[in-house]
Amino acid sequence: MDIIKELYKRSDEKYADFQAKLTPNVDRELFIGVRVPDARKLAKEICKSEDYDDFLAELPHKYYDENMLHGLILSEFKDYDACVEQVERFLPYVDNWAVCDIMSPKCFKKNKERLIGKIVEWAESDEVYTSRFGMEMLMTHFLDEDFKEEYLEIPSDVHIDDYYSRMMVAWFFATALAKQWEATIPYIRENRLEAWTHNKTIQKARESYRITEEQKEYLKSLKR
């Protein structure tokens, strides 16, 4: 399959312009303009045919849309070990929040005991998007029935001087407040997060429908 040809069949110039504005650190000329639902359908087709080895091996890709497709293909993997191997090959080439956030491998859900160790490793990385991916996987898989209070220390220990890293920490803690209020609120009450991240966490939490009005007022009083 000619992946570039398939992507261009699904291109939308207006959508490419839109995506470029949302991802300012990627040159406009690198956007083909494939909408996510279309890219997801293509990823499923490719995985069904198992015709992806050459594409996954061709790193770095040129186009943003290739990277998005790469992340979506990995999300379809069913074999945990193969998925982790491919994720770790790909992460060094991830250079924006959208590609990072599109990856959500289905096989991770059934391998949480093994996954948590990799999450810690990824989150501790000095690379912005490797660390962000680790935190996002922690948020996705470990804030519900598998939650442990010590997991909150993982994102709180991330101190990368980058907007997309700090925003991920804020997003994580805002979600944690919604799902695990009692365990999480001390991080805000005791100012355990950096000031910008602290205030952004409060902002995002107060925008959430999962936070009660009483909780929102209390968070407002904790703003620094």
Describe the structure.
It is a single chain. Helices cover 63% and strands 0% of the residues. With 224 residues, the protein is mainly α. The chain folds into two domains: 1-111, no CATH class; 119-224, no CATH class. Helix 3 crosses helix 5, helix 5 runs antiparallel to helix 6 (80-90) and helix 11 crosses helix 13.
Summarize the structure.
The chain is mainly alpha-helical and 224 residues long.
Protein traits:
single chain; 224 residues; mainly alpha; 2 domains; 14 helices; 63% helix; globular
Which helices and strands occur, and which strands form pairs?
Elements (H helix, E strand, L loop, with lengths): L2 H7 L3 H10 L13 H14 L3 H5 L6 H12 L4 H11 L6 H6 L9 H12 L4 H14 L11 H4 L6 H17 L1 H9 L5 H12 L6 H9 L3
Helix pairs in contact: 3-5, 5-6, 8-9, 9-11, 11-12, 11-13, 13-14
